[in-house]
Amino acid sequence: MHKPKYRNRTDTAMILEIQSFADPALDVYARLTENQLLNRADPENGLFIAESPNVILRALDAGYEPVSLLMERRHIEGQAREVVQRCGDIPLYTASLPVLTELTGFPLTRGVLCAMRRRKLPAGEALCRGAGRVAVLENIMNPTNLGAIFRSAAALGMDAVLLTPACCDPLYRRSVRVSMGTVFQVPWAYLGSGIADWPEAGMRLLRSWGFRTAAMALRDDSVSIDDPRLLAEERLAVILGTEGDGLADQTIADADYTVRIPMSHGVDSLNVAAASAVAFWQLGRR
Q1: Closest CA to 178 of 157, 151, 156, 153
Q2: Which residues in 1-119 belong to E strands, given as ranges?
Q3: What's the rounded Cα separation, in Å, for the pair 127 and 119?
Q4: What is the value of pTM for the model shown?
Q5: 90, 140, 154, 179: least surrounded by Cβ within 10 Å?
Q6: Residues in Cβ contact with 233 at an 8 Å cutoff, skipping those fewer than 6 apart
Q7: What are the residues whose beta carbons fall under 8 Å from the beta carbon of 249, sequence distance 6 or more?
Q8: Cβ-count burial of 48 within 10 angstroms (0-12 exposed, 13-18 middle, 19+ buried)?
């Protein structure tokens, strides 16, 4: 097996030319699954991949530790220059775009990837202390939807995002990319550690933290999203369910409000990511 060839050294990074796709140093980018990166057996050594300079910079701003970089040669002194400078003395693997595309199996967004260390998540109670509006995501398993919801939460007034244990990981590569790095800007945590912790135990926790709960669901007794009682709530948790199935019946039954978005032209519902943007814009105002 060939080792990456030493090319040169900038002020901040050791640049290594990729000579072999089989090099173990590239496993994190090319061969490890998302679950292997998460490393549930040893979470303190878990990793994730940030993609594109802007996303990587947001992760660095949030205090995440970079482990290595992978990028096209032309970006080292180009659009990734600030990333390279800020990442310090870590390995920087490089090759032409065709080689990188073959290595990763897809064209790189902006040609730059960064492997970063995960951090210990905060406790939900500490995260919500002082929060007026939080988003609660029930069993959202599609990384694209999850990333889009985070982007809306960051832009439209949510103080934090809480996830039920069955949600997909916000640091999956696609979630991070779709969110444009806002997963590093909006505080988030899980509501419990196992499926049994939701909805009964999780809903009790939200109430104990001082939140009234608004379940987004299409029911006969739903109130409109512009109901003035919702805006009048000092602390409100907006609960969104998975695509297709929506929220669990028990979640809806336990909520203080069941809320619908008025529709026209015979449309009965929106994609959960689109619905989140409408809900956060309306209910995030206070």
Answers
A1: 151
A2: 5-9, 13-17, 47-51, 66-72, 90-95, 112-117
A3: 15
A4: 0.89
A5: 90
A6: 212
A7: none
A8: buried
What Rg value do the Cα atoms of the chain yield, rounded?
21
Structure tokens at 269: 């519902």
In tens digits, the chain (286 residues) has pLDDT values of 344 444 444 555 688 888 767 778 788 988 889 999 988 778 778 999 999 999 999 999 999 999 999 988 888 989 999 999 999 899 999 877 777 777 666 555 457 899 999 999 888 999 999 999 999 999 999 999 999 999 999 999 999 999 999 999 999 999 999 999 999 999 999 998 777 889 999 999 999 999 999 999 988 889 999 999 999 999 999 999 987 788 999 999 999 999 999 888 878 778 999 999 999 999 987 6
Looking at residue 150, its amino acid is F
> Identity (one letter) of the amino acid at 86?
R
Q: Which residues contact 202 (CB under 8 A, 6 or more apart)?
A: 136, 164, 191, 192
Alpha-carbon distance 214 to 75, whole Å? 46
DSSP lists the bridge partners of residue 62 as: none
Sign of the alpha-carbon torsion through 246, 252, 255, 256: positive
Closest CA to 11 of 79, 76, 93: 76
